[in-house]
Write the structure tokens for this entry.
Amino acid sequence: MPDIRKMAERVNDYIIDRRRYYHAHPELSGEEKETVQALKQDLEALGIEVKLCTTCHGLVGTITGGKAGPGTKTIALRSDIDALPVNEQTGLPFASENPGVMHACGHDSHMAMLLGAAKILTEIREELPGTVKLLFQPAEETASGALAMIAEGALDGVDAIYGAHIWGDFDAPYIDVSEGNRMASCGSFTITVEGSSTHGSSPHLGTDAIVAAAAIIMDLQTYVSRNNDPLNPLVVTVGKIDGGQRFNIIANKVVMEGTYRTFSRRTLSTIDKDLKRIVTHTAEAFGAKAAVECVNMTTPVINDQADLNRIARDAVIKLYGEEGLGHLPTMMGSEDFAFFMEKVPGIFGFIGSRDPEQGFVYTNHHEKYSVPEEVLQRGAAMHAQFALDYLTEKAGE
């Protein structure tokens, strides 16, 4: 069997070079036109067949193994490619050249790791008992890119998928492929409260939408503490509130926006009705009217495929021993990789990037977030090892 670890070490300079290029040239969600063209050139330079999506700035590269044929499988490996509206403050010599846009979530590292894996896999192409699809996905930060790629057939013929996220709160150089709940679903809601205006000195002549909105905010917290099973992780947050015309006028309208996060599909199926009940009845108690609109943006990421969990864990141990494994606690953040996992069996991992001794202490989405580049070869190796091991194990099924 190929020594994937040594191969990753040999392509380390290539991985770092590509990371620095993409870090310097970030593009926002839905605007990744130049990024996807650069990825196309990188993959074609490796002799990989490339197909661009037509409805989004996504790309699928295909590596057909020399031993692919009847009875072999297709594994997909995924990287997201979009950046955030953040003013970079890292001071890196390869810092963003696009003002107000930064790869603050590590997607530059994701692209570099998957390109490194692509380089490794092309070198062992003739030994691959199956096919590898490389999915470079746009618009992860807006939770729309995965669905767009799925609609265009990116998962056609795919039997399983692996993805990973580099993470600033997880110590380098560990790799986490823990089973169970990993990242929560993401939903958003908008609440509109309507009252009636009057002079601030005579509140009894109007209906104060701000007071009703404040009561709604407090009552929403009881949904988590009193309506939800305490064993079910659930967050309901009101993150924005806008209302009122002037300091001495009773507000006639308030609009609030928020988010809810959970791992429970049952909760996702009922939360819109539950929030509507709380919101409308609370507003009525103050003589106001209220409406709520909920949108389920992503489903949860749950590593519940026993065979994939085992293959991934064994791949880490094969590469870096038991000591290479780490564990990042379950989090309530979200990832639209979940949509891929809704369609085919999948597993999602994490690559640690926290290293206080080198000064890498900032979290994802921070204007100073960066990574110790030596961990990127590990992410690339994991992509390649998982793909090889999956295809080898499943070839006879």
User: Anything to note?
Assistant: The two ends are 20 Å apart (CA to CA).
